[in-house]
Amino acid sequence: MKKIVLALLMAGTLVQAQKRKTEVSIQGGDFYINQKITLKGKVYQGMKLEGLLPNSRMVQGIYDDLNPETRILWKYPDTGTWDADRNTNEFIKAMPTWKNHGLLAITLNLQGGSPQGYSKDQPWINTAFKSDGSLDEVYTKRLEKILDKADQLGMVVILGYFYFGQDERLNDEAAVVNAVKNATDWLLDKNYRNVLVEVNNESNINKYDHAILKENRIHELISLVKSRQRDGRRLLVSTSFGGGFIPVDNVLAVNDFVLVHGNGVKDPARIEQMVKTIREKSSYGGQPIVFNEDDHFDFDKPYNNFIAATKAGASWGYFDYRMKDEGFVEGYQSIPADWSINSERKKGFFGLLKKMTK
Question: Could you tell me which of 174, 185, 164 has the C-alpha nearest to residue 131?
Fold first, then answer.
């Protein structure tokens, strides 16, 4: 009898631990958080913000480097060593400030992004997946901390699974499929409701080793994520495309939201045109359109990529990295990262965001 009572108590504790505060959903072409449309009633310079999901690319929140030869590249200036737990803890500490400035979503990735901003080669090893597609528990523990904090704060996480330059860490296509199942099931079993899945980053990039991660077949993995359910509940899912690229029909036919990037798009008018072109495609079904990576700034100017996307009714995402000869405080993608808002570009983005949303 004591064993039964203990088991029931443990089960009750588990259920309690899995209760979540934040749920993201989509109704029509709008985002909702806890059944309330985002930014309800908000208008900025005549532009409607209601239903949008302003976001920032923060993909290195759980970063590590398992290659001892390159790990030294990411040493902190104050200690001379790299520390993955410090990185995650400082990330979490900064999250309330981001939210207070109006940020509703952050993009993470289980294989990160280039810790140099852009890289020709990627000899470092940063992946939450083992070679057979099973999950690395050390990574998922860090991820869980961030997802829990986001849930507490009422924030959404756009969680990418794969990144080119790291997808080759998986043995073969079967391992990729296994990884998608394992990551999706982990999120469902943990009852996360504030997560949007980005199967992979920029699926039209030819650097992916596995064919199923490329644009012609990525819809297979999107459909796989949609097929994994718990009590009739599933995760909302999409995949992103490179800067200026218009999503392909096979993806638009199955994704829950549209992910595009503004890298390389120097003229803000082109951002508006991208949104218009997507909406005019016969395969487009009215999904919300989200830019979750754009390395253009000009936040002090009346017309920039952020403003252009908002004007077109699309969500916009800030992407910043440490450029040549810049100091530690610059950028969010470069490792080691300073997650606070203390550079001119960071202040520019968050300042405009707060002005628009508060």
Answer: 174
| Residues contacting 30, CB < 8 A, separation 6+ | 37, 38, 50, 51, 288
3-state secondary structure the chain: CHHHHHHHHHHHHHHHHHCCCCCEEEECCEEEECCEECCCCCEECCEECCCCCCEEECCCCCCCCCCCCCHHHHCCCCCCCCCHHHHHHHHHHHHHHHHHCCCCEEEEECCCCCCCCCCCCCCCCCCCECCCCCECHHHHHHHHHHHHHHHHHCCEEEEEEECCCCHHHCCCHHHHHHHHHHHHHHHHHCCCCCEEEEEECCCCCCCCCCHHHCCCCHHHHHHHHHHCCECCECCEEECCCCECCCCCHHHHCCCCCEEEECCCCCCHHHHHHHHHHHHHCCCCCCCCEEECCCCCCCCCCCCCHHHHHHHCCCECEECCCCCCCCCCCCCCCCCCCCCCCCCHHHHHHHHHHHHHHC
Map out the domains of the chain with their CATH numbers: 53-357 (3.20.20.80)
Strands 55-57 and 105-109: parallel
Distance CA 104, CA 12 (A): 31
Token pair for 234: 């599933």
8 Å CB contact between 90 and 342? no
Each residue's pLDDT tens digit, 143-168 = 999 999 999 999 999 999 999 999 99
Please state the φ and ψ torsions of residue 179, each to the nearest 5 degrees. Answer: -65, -45
Residue with tokens 């995760």: 235
Q: 207-241, pLDDT tens digit by residue?
A: 999 999 999 999 999 999 999 999 999 999 999 99
pTM for this predicted structure: 0.95
